[in-house]
Structure formats: structure tokens, C-alpha cells
Design a protein that fits this description.
The complex is a heterodimer of chains A (about 220) and B (about 260). Chain A has about 220 residues and is an all-alpha fold. Chain A contains eight helices and no strands. The model of chain B has no long low-confidence stretch (mean pLDDT about 90). Classes of the chains: A mainly alpha (about 220), B alpha/beta (about 260).
């Protein structure tokens, strides 16, 4: 076995650096996810409103954010803001803004969907057994909405984590960027470094996302048993 | 009977959706222990009548009184009225995230603030009566349509309602499940429950009713005893309506 590319991982602080990069990825995702879930729930409830102005406004926001590739949004916020308004945002801040905008849009649509999919009769049969409005929501509507929402929301979270790899392109040094740096610096000494480094990055993403998927599957199983 | 004060009084009830008038001028008294069956062609407003009684629809005219107290178009405390009026829907509408027992005890415990263990033991007693005690920890999706509808009846009963409303409770069921549900209702009638039943099961209506109310296009066309109504109704419209079912019956026999 000549040329063991794996050794590149153990040169200097390489592995630690990858983990530090992973932390940047996780930190950005985590902040964006929390903002998205909170704002998404609020916006989703607003979106069930019958007011036409509110509907058009929220629909426009949703479609705009969804149709635009995340990369374009990132460039728009990171480069566009600087040029147009002279607002200098760091790459990380830009990333959090973009992923929060995107996550909020997606989350709000999930919340809206879960709320409107609740049959009218569920409200009525709750009222028919003499519950008041607050009790109908507390015991009947909200528990069912949450059950419908959690698997979808978790799916969104893993998508957000994976998509943060795009922020390499606005110069944020997260796990993929660290990987690239390691590969670049050892290009001559370890030609097969790319395979090993990206392989490790694959498992790092897997290690973050898989437990989340497991949790979702477990919750679904518990509620459907 | 007429001298006695009615449990439920409906006086000149009018109901419309925008310009579409559903109930024109309905007056009906229901006495304690009476079983009133409401029949009529689909879209005649019979389900709407039940929904108005239970306050799920607001009304545009007239009054509905329970024990002499006006219960229609209340903005406040309608939930207290609904605790006295049990309603069973066509599509059962059990709460899918709760077990059968939780479905039944939710109202008594949360709405009526009754003691949990007392509510549970009553729920179990009622489930035993409808032969579903072994399903008490199951979830609604594990039950057949007929079983779900029996649970829905128990859920309403457990609130100790003064009157029970049944809105086409067998319409969504497979034929072989209809019987088990109707048997439960016959049992209730025998015990003297006050019931208003909307149904398309004419044989059943005849068997259970103390009085038949025939509604067509939003008004009461005929009120009669079941024996007269089903053999020799006073009005032509009722006769035409019943003919539809006759025809079905003849065809059914031929095919066998």
C-alpha cells in the first residue's frame, strides 16, 4: 500500500480543523433553523388569514424565496448589499440572513399546510362535546398539527444543514472550505487527498444529519403505533 | 303530552347562507323521552337543522329554547349549552391522536371538570354496553367504521346530554355495519333518551320514531306518527318521497 492518502488527515491539526469547520456549519445552521422555526410558525399562522392583501404579500415572499436559487440569494445579500447600500456584512451573517429567509418561507408553508389540512369537523366535534375554543385548540388542533409538522420540519432542517455548504462561495470557512484548504496544501505530497478529505466530510455531514432523521422516524413511529 | 313543557322548542327558525335560504320557518317541539326522526330529500335542510340546534350554525331568525332558556345565537358560553346537547356526526370525527378511552373522557374531564377516575369508569361501562371494552386503548384508525360510530355515540353519551342529535350517522358506513350502530340507538330509545335523528334508513325510522318530521325545501311538510307516515302519509309530497324508497326495495328483491 503505497501512498496512503488517509495520512493527510492526521498531519498537523488537519482533523481538528475539519471539526472546527463543521462547528461553523452547525452554528450557522442552528441559528438559521431556530430563527426559521419561530418566524415560520408565526408567518404560517398569518398565512391562513383570509385577508387578500396579507395573502398576496406572503405568497409573493414565499414564491420569490423559493424560486430563487439559494446561491443567488447568498450573492445578492453578500455582494449586492455592499455595492448598493454600502452595508458590509460578514459572510457568516449573510449566510444566517439568507438561510433564515429561506427557512422561514419553507417552514411557514409547512405550518400553513398543516393548519388548513385540519378538517373542519375536528373543530366541530370538539365544540360538540362542550369544549371552549381554547380547549379545542389545546387538546385537539395543536397536538394534531404538531404531529403532522414535526417530520416535515425535521426534513427541512436536514436540507438546510446540507445547503449551508454553498456558503463556501461567499468565503465563509466552514467544513467544506477547510477541506479544500487541506487538499490544496497537500496537492503535491498527497495526490489522493481529495478522496479522503471529502470522504471524511461526507461522514461528518452524515453524523450530523442522520441522528436528526432517526429522531424524526422515531417520533413518527411513536405517534402512529 | 301537549300540556307538558317541551324540552326543546324551536320557534320560527330561519337559516340562510347569504341569499340562499336553507330553513324557511321551522317550528318544532320535542318532549323529554321522545324520539323524533327527521326525513327528507338530500339538501332539504335537515342536517342544517341539527347544526342550528347545537349552535354550530348561527340562525337568521326565530329562537331555539332548551328547558325554556334561549340557546340560539349566543356569543358567550355556547360551550355550556353544548354540554347538554350531544351530537353524533356522519363521519364519526373521533380525535385520531387519542385512544378510544381518551376520546370519550376528554369532554367529561376537561369541559365538565369531572373526576378523572369517575369519568373513566363510566366510559368503560358505556364501552362494555356497546361491546367495545376491549378496544379502549386502541386508536381510532384501528377500528372499523361501525365501531368508530359506536364510540362516537358513547363519547356523546358520557356527557350526560339532555338530548342527543344524530346526523345521518349510518350514511358513511358499509351496509353490514349499519345494524350494529342502529341497535345501539334502539337501545337508547328504549331507555327513554330524548333523540332527534336525521336518517335515510326508512325501516329504522319506522321502528324507532315516536314522531316523524318530513322536511322538504326548508320547511316542515308533514309531522305524523310513523305508522301513518310510512303507510298512508297525509301529503302528496311525502308520498312521492317515500315512493323513491319503495322502488329501491322492489328492485332489491328482484335481484336476489
Amino acid at each position: 500500500m503505497q501512498d496512503l492518502g488517509i495520512k493527510v488527515l492526521f498531519q498537523g491539526r488537519n482533523f481538528i480543523r475539519l471539526l472546527e469547520g463543521l462547528w461553523v456549519t452547525v452554528r450557522i445552521s442552528l441559528i438559521a433553523v431556530i430563527i426559521s422555526i419561530v418566524l415560520g410558525i408565526v408567518l404560517g399562522m398569518i398565512m391562513t388569514s383570509k385577508n387578500p392583501a396579507i395573502r398576496i404579500l406572503t405568497k409573493t415572499y414565499l414564491e420569490f424565496i423559493r424560486i430563487m436559487p439559494q446561491l443567488v440569494l447568498l450573492f445578492l445579500v453578500y455582494f449586492g448589499m455592499t455595492k448598493a447600500f454600502n452595508i458590509n456584512l460578514s459572510g457568516e451573517t449573510s449566510a444566517i440572513i439568507v438561510f433564515s429567509l429561506w427557512g422561514t418561507a419553507e417552514m411557514s408553508d409547512l405550518v400553513r399546510g398543516a393548519l388548513i389540512s385540519m378538517p373542519k369537523h375536528q373543530y366541530e366535534s370538539g365544540m360538540a362535546i362542550g369544549l371552549n375554543t381554547v380547549q379545542v385548540y389545546k387538546y385537539i388542533i395543536i397536538p394534531q398539527t404538531v404531529r403532522r409538522l414535526v417530520p416535515l420540519a425535521i426534513n427541512l432542517v436536514t436540507r438546510m444543514i446540507k445547503t449551508t455548504s454553498l456558503i463556501v462561495l461567499i468565503g465563509v470557512v466552514e467544513v467544506v472550505k477547510v477541506g479544500q484548504q487541506i487538499i490544496e496544501s497537500s496537492r503535491l505530497t498527497v495526490p489522493s487527498a481529495a478522496l479522503w478529505v471529502y470522504g471524511v466530510i461526507y461522514f461528518l455531514y452524515f453524523g450530523v444529519c442522520y441522528p436528526i432523521s432517526l429522531l424524526s422516524a422515531k417520533l413518527e413511529k411513536r405517534w402512529n403505533s | 303530552m301537549d300540556k307538558e313543557k317541551a324540552l326543546l322548542e324551536i320557534e320560527h327558525l330561519k337559516k340562510s347562507y347569504d341569499s340562499n335560504i336553507v330553513l324557511k320557518d321551522i317550528s318544532l317541539d320535542i318532549h323529554k323521552g321522545e324520539v323524533v326522526v327527521v326525513v327528507g330529500p338530500s339538501g332539504c335542510g335537515k342536517s342544517t337543522l341539527l347544526r342550528c340546534i347545537n349552535g354550530l350554525e348561527d340562525i337568521q331568525g326565530g329562537d331555539i329554547l332548551l328547558n325554556g332558556e334561549i340557546i340560539s345565537n349566543r356569543k358567550r358560553n355556547m360551550h355550556l349549552v353544548r354540554q347538554k346537547v350531544g351530537m353524533v356526526f356522519q363521519s364519526y370525527e373521533l380525535f385520531p391522536h387519542m385512544t378510544i378511552l381518551e376520546n370519550i373522557t376528554l369532554g367529561p374531564v376537561k369541559a365538565q371538570k369531572r373526576n378523572q377516575s369517575e369519568a373513566v369508569s363510566e366510559a368503560e361501562e358505556l364501552l362494555r354496553r356497546v361491546n367495545l371494552i376491549d378496544k379502549k386503548d386502541a386508536y381510532p384508525r384501528q377500528l372499523s367504521g361501525g365501531q368508530k360510530q359506536r364510540v362516537a355515540i358513547v363519547r356523546a353519551l358520557c356527557m350526560h346530554p339532555e338530548i342527543m342529535l344524530f346526523d345521518e350517522v349510518t350514511a358513511a358506513l358499509d351496509p353490514e355495519m349499519v345494524r350494529e350502530v342502529l341497535d345501539v340507538m334502539l337501545g337508547l330509545a328504549r331507555e327513554g333518551s330524548t333523540m332527534v335523528i336525521v336518517t335515510h334508513e326508512m325501516q329504522f325510522a319506522r321502528a324507532i320514531a315516536d314522531r316523524v318530521v318530513f322536511i322538504d325545501s326548508g320547511e316542515i311538510v308533514e309531522e305524523n306518527t310513523p305508522s301513518i307516515f310510512f303507510t298512508n302519509p297525509d301529503t302528496e309530497r311525502a308520498r312521492q318521497f317515500l315512493n323513491i324508497f319503495e322502488f329501491d326495495a322492489v328492485k332489491g328483491v328482484k335481484n336476489k
